[in-house]
Write a structure and sequence with these properties.
This protein is of the alpha/beta class. It folds into two domains: 3-61, no CATH class; 64-247, Rossmann fold, CATH 3.40.50. It has eleven helices and five strands; from the N terminus they run H-H-H-H-H-E-H-E-H-H-E-H-E-H-H-E. It has a five-stranded parallel sheet with strand order 2-3-4-1-5. Helix 2 packs across helix 3 (36-63), helix 7 packs across helix 8 and helix 8 (151-160) crosses helix 9 (176-189).
């Protein structure tokens, strides 16, 4: 019998899903009644599922999402202003594939970070690459990258990521160098990749938070063209002992 050599060959080819399925078939005599084509189809399907699962795991690890959030657990209490139909449409991630921007705004504790991470999780589940960063952290990484020679590599990574999530947008006004770096990031991705912005500031105040009018115009023109907007409302979800407080940002 060639069972053991076959299993070793499958594992050597990194067809681990197929190898596991083959072992299960050997252990279930009733499956021997299936035709060769049917048994082969089961092996191929298991390998396909295993590869999808490994890819999702890699994407989620690389995304470094701040919260373990998913769209299925969203709290739709009326005061939050979320519409199920619209959330379902955004959950298809067509806006990510269409290289659009999603703007999440609302007061502290309204759940912006949770929603941002939930959309990031959803994108990973659909095979899209994601990277979550607080805007201050991104700007600090870019500052360091200028000094250690890794700027081009970092910009290349950001430019290739399908969905870039920038949280805590507009917390402080930007310096001239930060404005320039941010414009470069947005310009490299404009029309090619999707961006999600989460901010306490309403969109109409973003211009002032950037600081310099010309650069602010350039950044916002690229971000807000074809942008989807979700404005969260209601009291802070951190209040009291409500289990939903885990969805607060």
């Amino acid at each position: 019998m060639l069972r053991n050599p076959t299993l070793e060959t499958l594992r050597g080819l990194k067809l681990t899903g197929m190898a596991e399925a083959f072992e299960q078939q050997l252990a279930q005599p009733q499956l021997h009644e299936l035709s060769f084509e049917d048994r082969l189809a089961l092996l191929v399907e298991r390998e396909h599922l295993a590869r999808d699962d490994r890819r999702r795991t890699r994407l989620l690890k690389a995304a470094t999402l701040r919260l373990n959030a998913c769209l299925e657990d969203i709290d739709y209490r009326p005061a939050r202003g979320l519409q199920r139909a619209r959330m379902a449409a955004l959950g298809t991630c067509d806006w990510v594939r269409g290289h659009h921007t999603l703007c999440l705004t609302g007061p502290t504790g309204s759940g912006k970070t949770y929603l941002a991470c939930a959309f990031g999780n959803q994108a990973c589940r659909q095979g899209l690459s994601v990277r979550y960063l607080r805007l201050p952290r991104l700007l600090e990484q870019l500052r360091i990258a200028h000094g250690d020679g890794s700027y081009a590599r970092l910009m290349g990574q950001l430019a290739k990521t399908d969905l870039l999530i920038l949280d805590d947008w507009g917390l402080v006004k930007l310096t001239a160098a930060q404005r320039t770096d941010l414009l470069e990031v947005i310009e490299e991705r404009h029309g090619l990749r999707a961006t999600l912005i989460a901010s306490q500031l309403p969109v109409e105040h973003w211009h002032d938070s950037i600081g310099e009018a010309t650069v602010a115009d350039a950044i916002l023109d690229r971000l807000l063209h074809n942008a989807h907007r979700l404005a969260l409302s209601g009291e802070s979800m951190r209040k009291g002992t409500d289990p939903a407080a885990q969805q607060a940002d």
